[in-house]
Every structure is written in C-alpha cells, then in structure tokens.
Amino acid sequence: MRIFKNYSPKAVAKYVKFFFKGRLYINGRGGYVFEHGRVVMPRSADPIHHATVTEINRQISSLS
Fold first, then answer.
1. What number of other Cβ atoms are within 10 A of residue 6's Cβ?
2. Mean pLDDT of all residues in 9-33
3. What is the CA radius of gyration of the chain?
4. How far apart are CA 36 and CA 6, in angstroms?
5. Distance separating the N- and C-terminal Cα atoms of the chain
C-alpha cells in the first residue's frame, strides 16, 4: 500500500501502471483499489472519489 502525501494525478498514474494491482491512499482524498492497471470505482463513490478515479484513469490512458 502506497501513501501519497500530495495529490498528483500523473505520479499516481505511473504508480498504478507500474504495479498493476494493489491499494493506495491519497491524503485528503481517501483510499483506492487498483486492478489490471486501472483504478476501480468504489461502490459508494462520493463526487471527490468519482472525480479522482476518472482523472487518474484518464492519465493512465494518456501514458500508453
């Protein structure tokens, strides 16, 4: 599990793409799970989680 002290979508995207499966935590935004190189949307996603997951997955797509 990696803890990011600052939210940087590009840094999080690189981490997710490199490790492919696991968990991460972003201070001020909460915990996230990623599988198959993509961040998974939580079942009870509030607007902050939804925006964060969308932004990180968009960054992952742009890295390819």
1. 9
2. 95
3. 10
4. 24
5. 24
